[in-house]
């Protein structure tokens, strides 16, 4: 018999799901590394998925605790999408995926594990990444440890943020020159 080790699941198995909304609880704490928070925007943040479908599986979440995307105001929706763009850019730099799955599982029947706080999943995909393991054994192989993924992605989010700020300054300068 072959074994597939997933030691990061043991705390979940021992303790079950944490009390309260993990998104609300973890963003109030200032332990971004241990909470796998990579980026904090004005209205939304990026957190790594503790139980990823693939390396780089990220969650883009508004700070506002609502269960439906319909309940988000326009500035929050805009920031959610800007943050999603930044996350995709960082993932492209880190992993060079061939494609992405983007999705919001809204409601238990749609597959939401945390249905009271809407969030968007970004799952990087590669040509041939669906192999026999999930099909035959309902098991996914994640080759990179979460901490290694975090260390790879964190500086890239800073790079992406700095590039966005520089583009914003350049646009502002062009507007001033035209006047």
Structural class: alpha+beta
Number of continuous helical runs: 5
> In percent terms, what proportion of residues is strand?
5-15%
Largest sheet composition = 5 strands, antiparallel
Low-confidence runs of at least 5 consecutive residues: none
Strand neighbour order, sheet with most strands: 1-2-3-5-4
Instruction: State the end-to-end distance.
Output: 73 Å
Approximate helicity band: 40-55%
The overall average pLDDT, rounded, is 83
Shape category = globular
Helix-strand sequence? HHEEEHEEHH
Strand segment count: 5
Please tell me about this protein's structure.
The chain has 179 residues and is of the alpha+beta class. The protein is 41% helix and 14% strand. It has five helices and five strands; from the N terminus they run ααβββαββαα. The chain has helices at 10-15, 22-28, 74-95, 132-137, 146-178, and strands at 37-40, 44-48, 58-62, 99-103, 120-125. Strands 1-2-3-5-4 form a five-stranded antiparallel sheet, sandwiched between helices. Helix 3 (74-95) crosses helix 5. The longest helix has 33 residues, at 146-178. The N and C termini lie far apart (73 Å). The model has no long low-confidence stretch (mean pLDDT 83).
């Amino acid at each position: 018999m072959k074994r597939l080790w997933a030691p990061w699941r043991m705390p979940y198995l021992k303790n079950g799901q944490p009390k309260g909304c993990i998104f609300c609880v973890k963003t109030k704490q200032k332990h971004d590394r241990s909470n796998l928070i990579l980026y904090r925007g004005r209205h939304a943040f990026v957190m790594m998925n503790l139980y990823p479908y693939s390396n780089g599986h990220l969650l883009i979440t508004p700070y506002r605790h609502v269960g439906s995307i319909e309940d988000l105001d326009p500035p929050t929706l805009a920031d959610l999408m800007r943050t999603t763009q930044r996350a995709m850019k960082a993932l492209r730099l880190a992993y060079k995926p061939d494609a992405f799955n983007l999705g919001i599982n809204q409601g238990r029947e749609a597959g939401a594990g945390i249905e009271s706080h809407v969030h968007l999943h970004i799952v990087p995909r590669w040509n041939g990444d669906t192999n026999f393991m999930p099909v035959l054994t309902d098991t996914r192989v994640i080759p990179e440890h979460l901490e290694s993924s975090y260390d790879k992605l964190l500086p890239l989010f800073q790079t992406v943020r700095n590039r966005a700020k520089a583009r914003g300054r350049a646009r502002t300068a062009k507007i001033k020159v035209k006047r």
